[in-house]
Amino acid sequence: MTAPLQDSAPPSEGTDAQVIEASWRHPDRFGAVFDRYFASIHRYVHLRLGESAADDLAAETFLRAFRSRDRFDLTCPSARPWLYGIASNLVAEHRRGEARRYRALARSADATEIASHDERVVQRVSAAVMQPRLAAGLARLSSGDRDVLLLVACAQLSYEEVAEALGIPQGTVGSRLNRARKKLRKIIGSAGEAL
Amino acid sequence: MNELEAIKAHRDSLPGPAPEVTARAWVLVAEEIEAERTGSGHRQPARPRRRSLRGFPAGWWATRAGVAVGLAAAVTAGLVVVRGDHESAPFGTPPASAAELLRHAASVAAREDIRPGPGQFVYVDQKNVTFASGSEGEYTQDLRREVWMPAGDPGRALTRSTYGQTHATSGRPEHVQSPGTVEYQRAGQCPEHSLSLPFQAADLPADPDRVLAKIRQGAETFVRSDQRRRGETDLGQDEIDMRVEKVVASSLLGLAQDPLTSSRTRATVFGALSKLPTVTIVQDLTDPAGRHGVGASLKLENPYGWERGELIFEPATYRFLGYRSWIGRQEGGQVRETPGASTAVMTVKVVNSMPEVPKDAGKPMFC
């Protein structure tokens, strides 16, 4: 007798669309979507609202996704735009908190500015510390522009996927991204070279 | 670096979610899945909660295959209280029944995916208490059992057993390994204690109902042949049914607590156990490692008394912690129940090597 340690054909195989379709009849299968994207969604929300909020909102993203999975468009093989769209909607409910966070990150730069060069270098390479001017720039973007910019830069979604995630035309994605980048460069100014 | 690259770099520098955060999120989703499956509808949306996990002491949690474990320190009567700045919110609801507990446990086990790659091994570390009964009396002995199971090659499996203290409950056991003794056992070395899954695990379906049907079919065959061997010709259908159910329960318990059972198979077995009406819930059990948990209990009657098996789960995450059993007897009109064998699963992980068996290693005593 053999002792197989793993069952064959684990249910997590298949495209996101296939998994979600299977989860209509077998809700357990949705676990594969959770496994694939929970960490990414958590990081995305972490960047926008901080870690504590990410703990809650990433979980809420997957609860909402599970509840609305019957509306998932099965012609889209990837669930990423859909999930980032849900997460972005949740972030939008905390818009003021997001702006406050960026402003606080920008202010935290003051200490860095007066620190020694060595300390600044350490600060620059340390994990999880956003460049102050970048934070200040993000704080001054409109929420719509910021959504597009962060879905492209942080989630690495294509224009088409961003349009799908936010429910806006692709042309609008392009114009918002251009506007956001111009504004950000202007705010960052020459310091942008140091980014 | 342009602004898009800077944002991406910052995003990549952020830490991923802590294991306990992932586990808690999954429990919320799993509850929703369960609610849908049982037709009890949607839960209320998860309320945003403020909490400070970093406030817990170091070592408060440990990681097993990417799933958070060890929330026992914060558990009171099956309810975890997560402390925030200004509020305390209950995390999870104590299961109302053994069936609910086992369904939660099945959902969680299904997510614990241990997959050794080529050349790797699944390593299981258990803290066991073995039970022996014989002419020398009854005793239990502490035992650490480690198992290395090579990917796709159970024929090369190895166990290392390190014996601990003996505790006699009656008589004076003489043929026991002294504390500190280390034994190695290779797969195939001990025919009566093979390093393989119970036969019921072979080709087990993924669906709990089908598992139950398959195990029951095997149990019926066994009971009928056992009946013939015993020469019992006048057994009523009720007695036969009762024996079948006992074999079913015993088989499922055996599969659930076997260290070689994969998480996915264990999930299916938990699902099958949840359908047995005789399983009861027991609050606040303790496994051999001293961890508190909530249990699903099954009592198996026999002509001399009974054996009670208890599967123990971590109350917050429903992770399988271990198993313990009790031997019950009617003696002189008195009910006597003594602890039987028990197991605490301490670690399950993928490792890259297994130890060499020392050249002078002897044959295991119980081989």
Can you describe this structure in just a few lines?
The complex is a heterodimer of chains A (195) and B (367). Chain A is an all-alpha fold.
How would you portray this structure in words?
The complex is a heterodimer of chains A (195) and B (367). Chain A is 69% helix and 0% strand. With 195 residues, chain A is mainly α. The model of chain A is unreliable at 1-12, 109-128 and 190-195 (pLDDT under 50). Chain B is an alpha+beta fold. Chain B contains six helices and 14 strands. Chain B has helices spanning 3-13, 19-37, 98-111, 208-230, 237-257, 263-273; strands at residues 62-64, 67-69, 75-76, 79-83, 88-91, 121-134, 137-150, 158-171, 182-186, 280-286, 292-302, 305-313, 320-331, 334-351. Chain B has a nine-stranded antiparallel beta sheet, with helices on one face. In chain B, strands 3-4-5 form a three-stranded antiparallel beta sheet, with no helix packed on it. At the A-B interface, helix 2, helix 3, helix 9 and helix 11 of A face helix 1, helix 2 and helix 3 of B.
Write a concise keyword list for the protein shown above:
heterodimer, A: 195 residues, mainly alpha, 11 helices, disordered N terminus, disordered C terminus, B: 367 residues, alpha+beta, 9-stranded antiparallel sheet, 6 helices, 14 strands
